[in-house]
Design brief:
mainly beta, Jelly Rolls, 236 residues
């Protein structure tokens, strides 16, 4: 996979820097050869299909023969083409700020913290110290206009979360919030960051009001939600 990245900011938007990746594509079907004449074999095998996007193409159709042996074999599969994956939003939190996010809730707010980093030195961290649900929220608007196949990925580490607490991750379709992960009544105490990745339904596509949000509700100072490596992509 090839990745081309413009700029060096850790936060990417539609009108800012972006990254492009390439994936294998699909080839078209090659045409079969033909034969005219008596007992001769059919024409040569059709040529391989050309790459267009997706997986490799199928072989060409066999040639036909007139009164003779079978026509020529089908063409070989075309080689894979290319597709693009566009990074619409990315935050690794290494800037040390939450400038890309809107914070809310009655609890202590999310911060960019060095207490429990993942791959880098900084991560998003919430220690709300209240069980008023949702206690602390962190959300970002990411327009998906002109884009399809939206995907949300992030790493998270939950510490001391019990049945009275809550962690949620979700997206906004312009009307309502839809959650891809929530702890509910379950407890969580991660020894390390857990990678989460979700392919979102069509309602996330071509939406100017698309947004993502993380919620943390926890009553004790020893309980926290930690998030890092947040990425929203589109395509191919």
């Amino acid at each position: 996979m090839l990745v081309l990245t413009a700029g060096c900011s850790s936060i990417l938007g539609l009108d800012d820097d972006y990254a492009v990746r390439t994936d294998a594509g699909a080839g078209a079907v090659g045409a079969g050869g033909t034969s005219s004449g008596g007992g001769n074999d059919g024409g040569d095998a059709g040529r391989g299909g050309t790459a267009a996007g997706g997986s490799a193409g199928t072989g060409g159709l066999g040639g036909s023969s007139s009164g003779g042996a079978a026509g020529g074999g089908g063409g070989t599969a075309g080689s894979g083409g290319t597709g693009t994956v566009v990074v619409l939003f990315e935050d690794q939190f290494e800037s040390g700020t939450l400038a890309a996010w809107t914070l809310g809730g009655p609890g202590d707010p999310w911060i960019a913290s060095t207490s429990t980093p993942n791959a880098g030195a900084v991560a998003g961290r919430a220690v709300p110290t209240t069980t008023s649900d949702p206690a602390s929220t962190m959300e970002a608007v990411v327009s998906t206009v002109g884009h399809t196949n939206i995907r949300l990925e992030y790493d998270r580490r939950l510490l001391g979360i019990d049945g009275a607490d809550e962690f949620r991750a979700g997206w906004f379709n312009g009307v309502t919030w839809i959650y891809v992960e929530e702890t509910g009544s379950a407890s969580a105490n991660d020894a390390a960051y857990v990678h989460r990745a979700f392919s979102l339904p069509p309602g996330a596509e071509n939406e100017a009001g698309f947004a993502i949000r993380f919620e943390c509700t926890a009553g004790a100072v020893s309980e926290s939600c930690n998030v890092d490596g947040v990425i929203v992509t589109a395509g191919p």
